[in-house]
Amino acid sequence: MRKKILCVGMISSMLCLPLIANAETTLIKTNSLEYSYWISDTNLLRVEGDSGYGIAAMDGTLLTESIYTRSFNYSKGYICGAEKSDDLHSHGVFALDGTIVIPFEYADIKALNEHWFLGIVVEKSTADQYDYTSWSSNNDYYLIKTVDVYYLEDGKGTKVSSLTRDHYIDSYAFGPYINIQDRTTNVISTYDAQFTQVATDLKYIFSESVEIGGLSTFRFNGQYGLQDAEGNEVMPASYSIIYDFYRGYAKVSTEVKTGLIDEEGTLIVPTEYDDIELSYYLPSSPTSSSGYNANGYFAVIQDGKLGFVDETGTLTCAPKYSENVLELTGASAVLTDLEGNTIIVAADGVETMIEGYERVSAMYYGSGMYYTVRNADYQYGMIDWHGNEILPCQYDDISLSGDGKYVMATTNYDNDIYQIVYTPDEPATPSEASETEVP
Q1: Does the predicted model carry a pTM greater than 0.85?
Q2: According to the model, what pLDDT value does residue 334 have?
Q3: In this structure, what DSSP letter does residue 282 have?
């Protein structure tokens, strides 16, 4: 149930289709499976077999054997897992097609970035000196024996080095390069994809000693701009600060205001705001769990209030409420008013009071476009950012795939998987905008 407080779009009737649909969102059923669950951050499924768990595609096709524990972990574009075994050295890594890229023979896997992974071999030690404690309740202690260094690219893995504990204490990866600190000498060196040393005696483990291409900042007359790998100016030095890029966008600041640029140096959000907010409910990414672009909208702060602009920099939702009372979920934000009412403030300017539910929660990977709702009987449903019901409250659980394009609705371990097709309403003209209550 919902009540529209402010409707900036035309009111459309519910579509009478043989699919689950409303004015903006259609669900197309793609499959039904039993005992299957999303592997977090992916579009893949964890499925149970006779001898353990395996990885399956959304259509149920097994991509691996079912000999693993249930703890599959997506990291940097790959899936870490462990064989169902009493042996500590049972961890390895899959590509997203189920191919084994790091063999299952390690006690631990460290994912540094999308290229560099470490496989850790340990040996038993004592409480006086150890790197790891027991994975079980035996209170055992372990020292690193060897660290195998893997370079991953295009879904394939190559072991490029094996280091003893004496020659490894820390590491840091940047692009196709890795820094390794030697435990015995404390010397930090940089290596390329073939593990050829290209720099040494670095001051810090995080020092990026090799230019990896792309854009970099340069300073001129006290201001910062962007240049390419050859030193050609891409964006003139016109900002006092250029912040880090997240998923293709970076904040820039004058001495007074903040805006947003893309990786070509184009100003997307004008430098008219006090801040630009990161969103944390975006689809999964190998490089970053947060970003600025939520389904084509950006959250801005002006005078302590939160609003939204679109990809052209046009203000679509004027800053109205204090950022301290809104929970930003991507392309929308949630407000709980003094009476305890839940209001979704959408980036297109529509505000919707949500009624008739015990709980309303933004869905991970949904970019603020979708929410789960729960009734008093602890059954779950799904609504969109305008409060339209997508799925009724009759499920044990509802969750999105890592790319936010598929939804799984679960009842008694039976899972229905739907593709989400979103078609935005036509924008309203000023004469069509009105305050409308919908019972």
Answers
A1: yes
A2: 97
A3: S
